[in-house]
From TrEMBL:
Gene3D superfamilies: P-loop containing nucleotide triphosphate hydrolases (3.40.50.300). GO terms for molecular function: GTP binding; ribosomal small subunit binding; rRNA binding. Keywords: Cell cycle, Cell division, Membrane, Transmembrane, Transmembrane helix. The chain crosses the membrane at residues 447-469, 489-510. This is GTP-binding protein EngB required for normal cell division. GO terms for cellular component: cytosol. Residues 69-210 form the G domain. One of its GO terms (biological process) is cell division.
Amino acid sequence: MSNIVGRMREAFRGDQRVDPDGLIARLEALRQFLGAVDGQVPDAQLVAAHTVVERAGTRLALSRDHTVVALAGATGSGKSSLFNALARLDLSPVGVCRPTTGVAHACVWGPLGGASRLLDWIGVLPRHRFVRESPLDGDDESGLHGLVLLDLPDFDSVQRTHRLEVDRLLGLVDLVVWVVDPQKYADRVIHTSYLREFHRHRDVTVVVLNQADRLPPAELPRVLDDLRRLLDADGLAGVPLLPTVAVDPDSLDGLRAALERTVAERQAALRRQAGDVDAVVAELAPLVAAEPPRTGPDDASARELTRALAGAAGVHAVADAVESAYRHRAGGTTGWPLVRGWRRLRPDPLRRLHLPGSGADADEPAESLVAATSVPDPTAAQRSALGLAIRAVADGSGAGLPAPWPTAVTAAARSRLGDLPDALDRAVAGTDLGMDRRPAWWRVVGGLQWLVTLAAVAGLGWLALGYGLRALGLPALEYPRVGEAPLPTVLLLGGLLAGLLVAALTRPVIRWAARRARHRAEKRLMVSVRNVGEEYVLVPVRAVLSRYGRAREALQDAARR
């Protein structure tokens, strides 16, 4: 007896207690993980985690003073007989017809009221609940006070509903006593479908070889050794393995001692939930990598994305239009007044694109921004380059991440692809191209042109007046002279030549200033386009990477024991 109890203590590892606060913290970390991966990981991979979080929270909230123990086994293993023997009452039906137990029966040691909500959650019908408390027992049953013992249906029942009920209940109980018999202890179903799945719940698993009286005394150790070998292969090394005979109360002393210790510790529910968390964390571990993720794409990919967006937005076409518009407007202001009129017949390049600053004159009110400009649509090559740039951002950002995160990163990078054309158009339309005001030197040169033109017109008028007087036979005018040339002639020719000279001198300056205006506008447009890429491509990608980082940290916290 002492050897059995010693093995039970070693198997249950009573010195390794589960801290309730630590378990709650792990569950909260698992809940945070689920929140972080919501929408990024297929729901089918998260069902078990959601179930554990919900089930563990409910179980711990219902009662920590009760320990739910289930007797599970195959048809004919004697679960019901063992259930009645432990209760010392005939509570669960025992018969020859199989299966005998179709629904779970519960026996509660102590007042039933405290366990009612727990049994409601487990799903045991009120008519199948029994109380094991009698004044006649004295202190005989006090060691099991707080035990809720369940007799489950047969897991290998021919009725599928029985098997489904067993599977459901096995996920809710705190400790499972697997009851096997000498004939079917090596059955493949119990080992592959059940015992092997409980390898993370060794602390709350007991295996009983019932009906041991059917074996010759010399064969019992051999059968126990063989069953131990099978349990070790199932990953249940060290779990308690006890021979029992339901009709012999003395053979149940080891099992009762184990149950009394479990009830006294009040650790079975915590260990069961901790094992469930361990199992879920191990299942979810492939979803995160050991190394922390990068925070976003590298600089080269971001720059390539900006260049591709600039091509799709027509930045270079707009910059060309700015340069042409600058020359057009500067020529119209600083050119010879006699030929300015024909310049105005030519359309303004920015006006044709419906861009800001397209007014032909600085004194004109700027046109209101429209939803769509007339910037040329991107070519097939530009659209392809943009697609490749977005793909490069996604591939670079998701490199090294476990599945399905690279797919999630790619989906995030392309999530707003349909909105990009309008966003780029608005960004170009909303960019200040620096063309709303005329430079002061335009006015100076323009005033000079008007001055020399007025001089030429004055000279021409003066000469025309003298010619008219002579034609009418009136006394001729005496023109002042500049050297040998009459002053009106000097004014006429000088004004014409000065206007042409000023225009020739300012033309190189206009070209230089137009190139500067183009460069300035191109820089501003690139900033606007980069902001669009940041908002519509990089921010969604960084959001996924941030969620991955939070999920990784949360799962690490959930794994800490």
